[in-house]
Amino acid sequence: MKAFVVDKYKKKGALRLASLPEPELQDNDVLVRIQATAVNLLDSKVRDGEFKLILPYRPPFVLGHDVAGTVVKAGSRVRRFKVGDQVYARPRDHRVGTFAEFIAVDEADAALKPNNLSMTEAASVPLVGLTAWQALVEVGKVKPGQKVFIQAGSGGVGTFAIQLAKHLGATVATTTSAGNAELARSLGADVVIDYKTQDFEKVLSGYDLVLNSQDPKTLEKSLSVLKPGGQLISISGPPDPAFAGELGLNLFLKLVLRLLSRGVRKKAKRLGIRYSFLFMRAEGQQLGQITSLIESGAIRPVVDKVFPFEKTGDALAYVETGRAKGKVVITVAD
Fold it and tell me: CA–CA separation, 243 vs 248, rounded Å?
């Protein structure tokens, strides 16, 4: 099969198109012929080696964290899917690699593709959908009437999280450029802040939850918009001790992560705010619940650009500009 390979950790490193053997199927796996995949900033960060401490991929490896396609083989213990099923997934860590023609995915990580989406649209959902779900439903436990601030409302996670928060009954504020304000409003944002001309920390106050996806400076400012008892959930770091515990890291790495988040945890505690770092995980059951929301019309994916498979490198470069509205998708096969 053809796949785009990372030969070594490198900033802005080139992807090399290579011929690789078809993935080996384990008993609980389905082999998926990939029809579409999507690009995330996570792909750039993994390629650049930013997560080497917690995701030590050994080059050469294949990038890619989103997949939509058709099951062509099923392992002996697979019960949820059969050959011919159209599925989508965010494969689990250490088993990613969707910039390819085929991938073996544990059946627990996959769900049936929403029947009202094309493969292209479906491929845009898993990583950002699960990130939003785990932040707002699982960790945040957002309830009707709460106030939620979602940063970068026109980005991949932002476009999905705004819709999910509105579905959960929250009042939603977001930041975006003036050019993308109408998109944010169309997704359900009640308060849209132009990050180029307004300071969100001067506009917002008394919020129950902030979903942070930006830099450390923005993270610190986010504390001031929360009320006591509120939650600051960050998907851009710094990792916290609870995350280190979940990963089962050694003592040295636990200490490193504890020190990285010490400053923000201390400030949050002083203000009576809970801080947590979220590194989303593969979860087919949650993806199935997301499927229901999409099929009911509560959430629609936002796709900015679609690239052909041979232009995968260009798709990654476009995402790195930070200008994408929603997701960038790659078509792999018909």
Answer: 9
Question: Nearest-CA neighbor of 214 among 197, 195, 190?
Answer: 195
- Residues 250-298: pLDDT tens digits? 888 889 889 999 999 999 999 999 999 999 999 999 999 999 999 999 9
pLDDT at 113: 98
The predicted structure's pLDDT at residue 45: 92
Long-range contacts of 79-85 (CB under 8 A, 24+ apart): 79/107, 80/107, 80/110, 80/284, 81/30, 81/107, 81/110, 81/112, 85/30, 85/112
- Whole-number Å distance between alpha carbons of 34 and 333: 7
Question: Cα(260)–Cα(236) distance, rounded to whole angstroms?
Answer: 12
| β partners of residue 29 | 106
Work out the pLDDT band at 245, boundaries 50, 70, 90: confident
- 3 state SS of 75: coil
- 333 DSSP 8-state letter: -
Helix and strand totals (H; E) in the chain: 12, 16
Q: pLDDT averaged over the chain?
A: 96
- pTM for the predicted model, two decimal places: 0.97
| Length of the chain (residues) | 334
- Strand, coil or helix: what is 332? coil
Closest CA to 69 of 92, 90, 86: 86
Q: How far apart are CA 254 and CA 250, in angstroms?
A: 6
Instruction: State the distance between the two ends of the chain, measured CA to CA, in whole angstroms.
Output: 16
